[in-house]
Amino acid sequence: MKIVMLGAGYVGLVSGACFSEFGVDVTCVDPDEGKISRLNDSVIPIFEPGLDDLVRKNVAAGRLHFEASLSKCGAKVDAVFIAVGTPTRRGDGHADLKYVYQAAKDIAGFLTPDHFTVIVTKSTVPIGTGREVAEIVREANPKADFAMVSNPEFLREGSAIEDFMRPDRVVFGTDSEKAAEVMRALYRPLYLLETPIIQTSLESSELTKYAANAFLAAKITFINEIADLCEKVGANVQDVARGIGLDGRIGKKFLHAGPGYGGSCFPKDTLALVKTAQQAGSPVRIVEMVVDINNKRKQSMASRVIEAAGGSINGKKVAVLGVAFKPNTDDMRDSVALDVIPALQKAGAIVQAFDPVAMKEAAKLLPNVNWMNDTYDAFEGAAAAVILTEWNEFRTIDFDRAKSLMAAPVLVDLRNIYKPEDAVAAGFSYTSIGRGAKDRLSVSKRKSA
User: Fold this and answer.
1) Residues 34, 68: contact at Cβ < 8 Å?
2) For 64-104, what is each residue's pLDDT tens digit?
């Protein structure tokens, strides 16, 4: 089989490389000629564990190609996947579909009446977009022989290859049985592994992606609010999360309290779902509240650092460990660091930060930060240190060494990667998320008695 992936960004590049691993002939097309040139030189533009090797392997095997124009992909393509960005549109919060619409116009000029081609929206798009794409193509090329499919991606940054190769499920929506046959053939290696493959309508498939991300974002926001309550009443959010997560109806994933969700998907997709639902006259009020709570939470995190440092950080050095929105990626989109670092700087802090892979991207977004060579360089002279991203190397900090480098032994752990008793025993003033002082509630009751 032969397919084209329009867009060589995160989704397009990972999906294209994985399909080529299945034995499919894949061409990734991107108008950024510099990116295509680098890809042809085996320079991968994103950080994703294992992607470099997978791309090189399949390029060498002749199954994976990169071009700057759809016109160079040859004829008789079985499917063209739209895997372009759908960022939040400025001003109104809706998904910006200009890249999707341009892709539709490009595809229309590529299709022929003598060969059936499936057009697949892989990008996360609002409900109804697939039918809009079909209208654009038909209007521009009435003789084109094609059918539309929605095939949302469920890739987690940092483990995207595993998610593609061994997914929980594959979802695709179409009105065409002929198109469905093409999709089943493409995903046949997963079918043989007994992966659930769900066929729906276009609209159901499009909504499934938004509903999944909104539910997970709500789960994160719920446990964060429970964490705040734990701090007030002396409970431990990790114990609570384990207690509820072992209930099969709830599940333990996405119950890790922290500074709020970020990344390329949850922020824009929850907002897009809110706007779509409002426009349809059926508001999703739970998701509206999730968006509001999460935004305010990220904005409030700097105050925890300031409080832990004694109420003022003016003129003081603050060590920031991790700036990517999550480990194993260099993605800075909607990272909590984009809220915390400017707020610390506004309060007068001299921020010195370290991240294993994201500093190059972060430097474009965060001015006046001292980017350090390693973890311990960041500790040098700091009046406080804050953990924003739970990279594995931050889990094994030598407390004695770190303390000896700092101006004051203050550690604010916004990812709960340490046990409070260990940090305190090492001589740190330690602050975490949702782990209240032991017996705080019983003490307060004895005082009131």
Assistant:
1) no
2) 999 999 988 887 899 999 999 999 888 788 999 999 999 99
Residue 317 and residue 378: Cα distance in Å, rounded? 9
User: Could you confirm whether 265 is annotated as catalytic?
Assistant: yes
Q: Which two tokens stand for residue 18?
A: 């994985």
Neighbours of 125 (CB within 10 A): 23
DSSP string computed for 31-51: S-HHHHHHHHTT--SS--TTH
DSSP 234: T
Could you give the CA distance from residue 404 to residue 182 in angstroms, rounded to a whole number?
62
Q: Measured between alpha carbons, how far is 353 from 344 in angstroms, rounded to an integer?
A: 12
| Cα dihedral sign, 11-210-124-120 | positive
pLDDT surpasses 60 at 445: no
| pLDDT tens column, 397-426 | 999 999 999 999 999 999 999 999 999 999
Choose, from 18, 28, 230, 265, the residue flagged as catalytic: 265
Q: What is the pTM of this model?
A: 0.91
Structure tokens at 335: 């990272």
Query: Please, are residues 48 and 329 in contact by the beta-carbon 8 Å criterion?
Result: yes
Question: Dihedral (C-alpha) 427, 429, 433, 438: value to the nearest 10 degrees?
Answer: 80
Contacts of residue 37, Cβ cutoff 8 Å, sequence gap at least 6: none
Domains of the chain: residue spans and CATH: 2-200 (3.40.50.720), 213-431 (3.40.50.720)
* Residue environment code for 265-292, b if the CB has 16+ CB neighbours within 10 A, otherwise e: bbbbbbbbbbbbbeeeeeebeebbebbe
